[in-house]
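Design a sequence for this backbone.
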């Protein structure tokens, strides 16, 4: 927890030469430190170093692996109660019926992936996925990072006792797959972006029944990547590679390309965190602490998949995604990096100052 807190403190939202948004709280240094200091990154690095020293001495925690199927090792790390990777977790309720909150969210379109997220996952050898590569384009669902197939339901992947058939209809030559709009499992809301979520809800066919709902608030993989980030920001990029590559190696993905600059490695570790922690409430806060306004404003796209009824060749369309954003275009405001306090609380008059932009 100390590693996570100090990483936030070192990040540009709080550790910068100027505040993220003007206002009284900024003037009084309530929402930032008032300057940039590399020492804050050094503090986060030190906390990571101390953590791994203690881990080596005390043992007991490790990244979950499964040699015959790395994907299942990854699943165990985020989903299985009592696993050796979970540092802080909750099991406050049980998914004993079809009405589990995550399942309902997925069924109603609350977890629809985008084309941009799909593209973040590398190939199994560690290289980038590229639509301009004819081999990748022919079948973008194979030879990929195993975390992709565990995070997003891919056509052709295992789905209950069958293989997923989730292609969309596009005229007579491209019929809909048998699982497209499957009532109560994969309806059109589940596939609103063209592809559906798999992580946490698995095959959506009852595997979770009678299994306690496990939610990791903090797991070991995050500390590996946080330490890698802090090392990089302190100019120790060469040392940082090990900790990022350990997370990749757990799922059998090839190592990150050597020779990256500090800025390139920063992008790589943020991308790695996105692939590792989909729907685990990590990516959103990474974008906030790095003040990634461009990411919040970028145009996102659906990923619609079609398969020819005779040749079985895939075809794709990438229409703009317009239904999953709280803002459009340039309407994003940096004041949203921190939420507003309730006016009723500020008005109690005990000194609480409203966050910048919400006055």
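Sequence:
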């Amino acid at each position: 927890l100390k590693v996570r807190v100090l990483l936030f403190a070192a990040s540009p939202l709080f550790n910068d030469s100027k505040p993220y948004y003007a206002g009284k709280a900024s003037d009084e240094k309530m929402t930032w430190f008032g300057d940039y200091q590399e020492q804050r990154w050094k503090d986060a690095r030190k906390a990571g170093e101390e953590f791994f020293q203690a881990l080596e001495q005390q043992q007991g925690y490790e990244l979950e692996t499964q040699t015959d199927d790395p994907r299942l090792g990854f699943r165990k790390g985020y989903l299985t109660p009592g696993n050796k990777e979970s540092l802080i977790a909750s099991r406050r309720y049980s998914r004993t019926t079809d009405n589990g909150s995550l399942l309902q969210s997925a069924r109603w379109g609350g977890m629809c992936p985008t084309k941009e997220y799909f593209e973040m996952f590398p190939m199994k050898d560690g290289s980038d996925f590229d639509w301009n590569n004819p081999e990748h384009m022919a079948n973008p669902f194979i030879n990929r990072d195993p975390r992709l197939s565990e995070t997003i339901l891919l056509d052709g992947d295992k789905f209950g006792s069958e293989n997923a058939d989730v292609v969309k209809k596009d005229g007579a030559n491209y019929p809909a797959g048998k699982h497209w709009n499957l009532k109560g499992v994969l309806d059109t809301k589940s596939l609103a972006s063209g592809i559906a979520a798999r992580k946490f809800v698995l095959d959506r066919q009852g595997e979770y029944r009678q299994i306690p709902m496990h939610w990791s608030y903090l797991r070991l993989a995050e500390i590996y990547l946080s330490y890698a980030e802090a090392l990089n920001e302190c100019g120790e990029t060469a040392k940082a590679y090990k900790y990022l590559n350990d997370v990749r190696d757990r799922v059998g993905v090839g190592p990150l390309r050597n020779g990256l600059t500090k800025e390139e490695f920063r992008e790589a570790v943020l991308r790695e965190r996105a692939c590792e922690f989909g729907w685990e409430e990590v990516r959103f806060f990474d974008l906030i602490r790095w003040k990634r306004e461009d990411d919040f404003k970028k145009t996102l796209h659906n990923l619609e998949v079609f398969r020819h009824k005779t040749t079985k060749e895939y075809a794709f369309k990438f229409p703009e995604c317009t239904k999953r954003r709280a803002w459009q275009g340039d309407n994003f405001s940096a004041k949203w990096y921190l939420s507003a306090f309730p006016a009723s609380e500020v008005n109690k008059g005990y000194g609480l100052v409203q966050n910048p932009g919400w006055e």
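Confidence is low (pLDDT under 50) at residues 95-99.
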